[in-house]
Write a structure and sequence with these properties.
Blueprint: H1 9-13, H2 54-67, H3 74-81, H4 91-102, E1 127-133, H5 138-155, E2 158-164, H6 167-175, E3 181-185, H7 186-196, E4 199-205, E5 212-220, E6 240-242, H8 248-259, H9 274-279, H10 297-306, E7 312-317, H11 319-322, E8 342-344, E9 349-352, E10 354-358, H12 365-377, E11 381-389, E12 392-399, E13 404-406, H13 415-422, E14 427-430, H14 433-444, H15 449-455
Parallel strand pairs: 1-2, 1-3, 6-7
Antiparallel strand pairs: 3-10, 4-10, 4-14, 5-7, 5-8, 5-9, 11-12, 12-13
Length: 457
């Protein structure tokens, strides 16, 4: 078990005196201090240089430091300033290390702004260009227009939406500065972060209001794999069911096999393909399903398993989506399995839904915070259709943060509609690159970058 605490925690809480030491703490020598990752400065006595010149401030500082050396003054200083003493310092010495830690936290700027000041903030760009994956239907394109207008109205500069034919082109144009922000799936977002120096601004929630979905392996309950503590090690030569060659769950399986040393029959990893990695453990004659074929996609992989096309299926989703619920039966649109006949193996990894990623070389902290706050504000708008309360009927966009209904703007301009129609999302959540993509990084980071690129071309 790990703990993050300040450097005085051991001395403060783990006293050698058993009478005052908490019952839950161990002996001091049973704790190990890891290297410091940051320092939080103590409280500071500050002054305004516009009203107090440096000579006077230095004299005041000297007097306070001199008083700190007098024992009789400890109680007086503590009652006045909350400290028994002062030491001389400068803004640079006292706050420099702390500043580098907190400066880039999204939303931090809001703590230092006057909420009554309606003036626009100074941004590092004259317009924002957001890249999305094409093709967009007419309705989706129109909805993205409302998204652009919403952000533009919030931050005070123009916002454009650009379409790209695949994720590779989307990430490439972000890295090359053609666009400032991209809305991308998990694997392209990871590649942009780890190989191109991009960063995550926010995560999108799927329609079930989840940030992550698990990548699962499913087997028949009566198979030898179901109760094994290491089922993958028993699968040499068996036939699998995958959603597709370039499906994210397939990439996670490939990374997991390599990371666990199960690809002993594989040649040079750097020159290997995804099929070669999969064939190094599973049936070498297995072929991935073609797009739009019977066994393609999550439904196809489940159908493949239930039809005896393979001994194990690898899919992305959750138990509610995989197993038939409330007496439902498999259908072409939604194939499901009987939970009595099939078992889920431990998840291989968790895949984030979609990421909002940006180029930190272009968008400074103020600019990206402004965009983030605009995106988060979409969460607070919901469209009410003939909603009745207190004897009156309302139709319009309800902003739950200020309890007001906009009955004049078009429905498509409401936050809930923008999220659903353009982003296929139920909400926006703050995120960092590590918190959102760190887990899959441990799994696919071992794979050559050309395999990653090929998976989303």
């Amino acid at each position: 078990m790990n703990s993050i605490s300040q450097d005085s925690s051991v001395e403060d809480h783990f006293s050698d005196d058993d009478s005052i030491r908490p019952s839950w703490c161990l002996e001091e020598d049973e704790y190990t201090m890891l290297p410091t990752f940051g320092r939080s400065p103590s409280n500071a006595l500050m002054y305004n240089p516009s009203f107090l010149d440096s000579e006077v401030s230095e004299r005041i500082s000297k007097e306070l430091v001199d008083l700190s050396g007098i024992n009789e003054m400890d109680q007086t200083l503590s009652s006045l300033f909350g400290t028994p003493g002062f030491v001389p310092t400068t803004s640079q010495q006292h706050l420099e290390g702390y500043s580098s830690l907190v400066y880039n936290i999204p939303g931090m700027q809001a703590y230092f702004e006057d909420p009554s000041d309606t003036g626009q903030v100074n941004l590092s760009v004259k317009e924002i260009n957001i890249g999305v994956l094409a093709p967009l239907s007419n309705s989706t394109s129109s909805s993205f227009g409302f998204l652009a207008d919403s952000i533009s109205n919030d931050i005070g500069i123009g916002v454009n939406i650009s379409e790209f034919e695949n994720h590779f082109s989307l990430v490439e144009n972000l890295s090359n500065g053609v666009i400032n922000i991209a809305i991308a799936d998990a694997i392209p977002s990871w590649k942009a972060w780890k190989h191109d120096g991009m960063s995550v601004l926010a995560s999108l929630l799927d329609e079930q209001e989840k940030v992550f979905s698990d990548s699962f392996a499913i087997v028949r309950s009566d198979s030898e794999f179901a109760n094994s503590t290491d089922p993958l090690s028993l699968m040499d030569g068996i036939s699998p069911c995958f959603s597709g060659r370039d499906n994210p769950s397939t990439l996670l399986v490939a990374g997991s096999l390599v990371g666990r040393g199960l690809t002993t029959h594989l040649g040079d990893l750097q020159n290997s393909s995804i099929p070669e990695i999969i064939h190094s453990l599973f049936n070498s004659s297995y072929s991935f399903p073609e797009e739009n074929s019977e066994f393609h996609g999550t439904n196809g992989a489940l159908r493949c398993l239930s039809h005896g096309g393979g001994d194990i299926a690898f899919v992305e989703g959750n138990e509610q989506e995989i197993f038939c619920q409330d007496g439902s039966q498999p259908s072409d649109e939604n194939w499901c399995l009987d939970s009595a006949d099939y078992s889920l193996l431990p998840p291989i990894g968790s895949l984030p839904y979609k990421s909002v990623i940006y180029d930190p070389r272009v968008l400074d902290m103020v600019s990206r915070t402004a965009v983030l706050n605009s995106l988060l504000s979409l969460n607070y708008e919901m469209f009410l259709d003939n909603f009745t309360t207190m004897g009156r009927e309302y139709t319009g966009c309800y902003d739950i943060s200020i309890h007001k209904i906009d009955e004049d703007s078009p429905r498509e301009a409401c936050g809930s509609e923008i999220l659903s129609n353009s982003l296929y999302s139920s909400g926006v959540s703050r995120a960092t690159s590590q918190s959102l993509l760190g887990q899959i990084s441990e799994i696919i980071g071992i794979l050559p970058v050309q395999l990653i690129n090929h998976s989303f071309r």
